[in-house]
Write a structure and sequence with these properties.
alpha/beta, 13 strands, 14 helices, three-stranded parallel sheet
């Protein structure tokens, strides 16, 4: 069974790229089709060892501002003349699923999310970019209208959808009118090799962009005067640092082992974004660190709250809304029940999302669908 992979773009290394890396390990593809490839960010990854086939957009002056070229992405992904492989697996959160497979190819899409800014979060993005009013907004809304039509139409090129969470599965059903099978992404759930002493601080770790809501975390901890460490870099770094107080420390970007140590030594991980899955809360639990998370999206599947005051299986505390009062209330609740979280519960829950489990499930799924297709020939 010959398999090739498709991925939206290879510019930064995040959760979707971790999934792709594991798909490379499992299926050993000859080629990976992608719109853009920034080699310097993948030097240590097995992804770079494969033949990377890029689009006509893969020019330096485009890569620097690649998101500005979003209207051209659907056209670009359709220009790939894919090799005669038995199976195409697209890893898609934007347009990868819209690749044009050969008639005889099985196309399986591992969907991280339907195109966010085209569907249910389009108005949030327009407001954030201040494009919800005026003449420019009319043009942008017209582009998003076109993207919605293309996104729904191109979903028909997929034979089978795999969702990275039940939350994403519901969105696939709503926007594409398609069913999917949930296979949670591979997470690093190795517990600490040595005991790491807990500090007095909480931790927030993410790229510092608006939807991750670091601003909300800074606002709450500034008022509570509780030690907080913020890990990550991004456009909001300077602004957030200026608004913070002496109890908040900015550590910038950390290497993997440094990041793991900081999370393991924290009292809890603060996780305020609405995420389709969210790998970090799982990895925090494997490091014996409970999570304070928004009670929406993928967090509902990765974090376990108390049941009627019983914390025996709990791994975190939820807050209802992305606002100051709600998060502050959750932090205070955590402080009251902190000692009730157990090592056993945290490790048990994190193991549900292991890499070995992902490899087994995705291998079986692809094999089954390939055999079903051939049995019909």
């Amino acid at each position: 069974m010959k398999i090739n992979l498709v991925h939206d773009w290879l510019v930064d290394f995040g959760g979707a790229e971790k999934v792709l890396e594991t798909l490379v390990e499992v299926f050993d593809p000859k080629k990976i089709y992608t719109l853009f490839f920034d080699e310097k960010n993948f030097k240590e990854s097995p992804i770079s060892k494969k033949e990377i086939v890029t689009s006509f957009l893969n020019k330096n002056f485009v890569k620097k501002r690649y998101r500005n070229f979003l209207p051209f992405f659907p056209f670009a992904i359709e220009q790939f003349d894919v090799d005669e492989s038995d199976v195409l697996i697209s890893s898609s959160h934007c347009v990868a699923k819209g690749i044009m497979p050969k008639t005889n190819q099985l196309h399986i899409c591992y969907c991280h999310t339907p195109l966010r800014y085209a569907w249910d979060q389009s108005y949030d993005y327009l407001k954030l970019l201040k494009l919800d009013r005026g003449l420019k907004s009319i043009f942008v809304k017209a582009v998003l209208h076109y993207l919605r039509i293309w996104d729904e139409t191109s979903s028909k090129r997929v034979d089978h959808f795999v969702s990275n969470s039940n939350f994403v599965g519901e969105r696939i059903r709503k926007f594409y009118k398609r069913e999917s099978t949930t296979i949670y992404p591979p997470c690093d759930v190795e517990p600490p090799k040595e005991e790491i002493k807990k500090g007095e601080h909480f931790v927030f770790a993410s790229r510092l962009v608006h939807y991750k809501r670091a601003d909300l975390v800074v606002e709450v901890f500034k008022d509570l005067k509780i030690p907080l460490k913020i890990i990550g870099d991004g456009p909001q770094y300077k602004e957030l640092k200026e608004k913070s107080s002496s109890n908040i420390i900015f550590l910038g970007h950390l290497k993997k082992e440094e990041l793991r140590r900081e999370i393991a030594s924290a009292r809890a991980l603060i996780f305020p974004p609405l995420e389709d899955f969210g790998i970090l809360p799982v990895e925090a639990q494997s490091l014996l660190t409970p999570v304070i998370a928004l009670k929406k999206g993928g967090s509902l599947e990765t974090v376990v709250s108390s049941k009627s005051g019983d914390y025996s299986n709990a791994t975190g505390v939820f807050f209802e809304q992305q606002d100051k009062d709600s998060l502050e209330k959750a932090v205070k609740e955590f402080l009251n029940v902190e000692k009730k979280f157990t090592k056993e519960a945290l490790l048990k829950n994190s193991k549900r999302f292991s890499k070995d489990r992902f490899i087994k499930e995705i291998s079986q799924f692809v094999k089954q669908k390939y055999e079903e297709k051939n049995s019909l020939c």
